[in-house]
Design a protein that fits this description.
Layout: E1 5-13, E2 16-21, E3 24-30, H1 32-41, E4 47-51, H2 63-72, E5 77-80, H3 86-94, E6 99-102, H4 104-108, H5 111-120, E7 125-134, E8 137-142, E9 147-152, H6 153-162, E10 167-172, H7 184-193, E11 198-201, H8 207-216, E12 221-224, H9 226-229, H10 235-244
Parallel strand pairs: 1-4, 1-12, 4-5, 5-6, 6-7, 7-10, 10-11, 11-12
Antiparallel strand pairs: 1-2, 2-3, 7-8, 8-9
Helix pairs in contact: 1-2, 6-7
């Protein structure tokens, strides 16, 4: 059985790690290089780096910072933010990223997923889906959660898989930063719809929230930010807790 992964997320703005609620009211959470190194030392399974204002500000991801983080860690590293071309991906992989995450550009041009998968391999391509529940329906948000589209999250997840995505990073905008638990309904629905790994994101507040998302859905990983950044949950403690609850994790 594949081990479930625990993934800290570094949301980056102006070179610093930040965290907010539902993508707004951001506050500083520390130096991303120091945080990444600490998480690698704590046996995090992977790290995700998201330059959360790159698309909104119409610029590219901060490649020099990506390189600094890559040089500080020895675990898989996914980078997203402002990626829209093969050249963007090439720069980030050359800077040390193992995988890239695409969101807005893929929604606007779904064929981008296929072009990137054909060039770099599906194992390198993560499609991030920021989903918000609107009148009972989960819809996709773009531009760092600033714009709600008419695209429905479930069909989009399936299309992303069929176009060559190797993984889905699914964030519930409704739950993000609330610490009230992952949105297990949409996580379960997406995990059941696709046959590629799904990372659950948005809402982690307690160790029990991680247990529940693994028990109630088929997601393969759970991602969190503030509970790790501010020391509310330590990754080794979380893994021991999950192991005691019969969740298969790497310790």
């Amino acid at each position: 059985m594949l081990k479930k992964r625990i993934i800290p997320c570094l949301d980056i703005r102006d070179g610093r790690t930040v965290k907010g609620v539902s993508f707004v009211n951001l506050r500083d959470a520390g130096d991303p290089v120091e945080l990444a190194r600490a998480y690698a030392d704590q046996a995090a399974d992977e790290i995700v780096f998201l330059d959360i204002t790159a698309t909104h500000e119409k610029r590219k991801t901060l490649a020099p910072l990506v390189e600094k983080i890559a040089n500080a860690i020895n675990i898989p590293f996914t980078v997203g933010g402002g990626i829209s071309t093969r050249e963007d991906v090439s720069v980030l992989i050359s800077s040390g990223a193992d995988k890239v995450s695409v969101n807005t550009a893929a929604v606007l041009d779904p064929a981008l997923i296929t072009r990137l998968a054909d060039s770099f391999g599906s194992q390198c391509i993560v499609v991030a889906i920021d989903a918000q529940r609107i009148d009972g329906e989960w819809r996709v948000c773009i531009n760092g959660g600033r714009k709600i589209t008419e695209v429905r999250a479930l069909p989009w997840a399936e299309e992303a898989m069929l176009r060559g995505a190797g993984e889905i990073l699914l964030t519930s905008v409704n739950s993000d930063g609330t610490k009230e638990g992952f949105s297990t309904d949409i996580t379960a629905a997406v995990s059941d719809r696709v046959n590629i790994p799904v990372i659950a994101s948005g809402g982690a507040g307690t160790m029990d929230h991680f247990r529940r998302v693994f028990e109630e859905t088929s997601c393969t990983a759970a991602l969190a930010a503030s509970v790790f950044h501010f020391g509310e949950i330590l990754i080794p403690d979380l893994k021991r807790y999950l192991q005691k609850n019969n969740i298969n994790v790497r310790v």
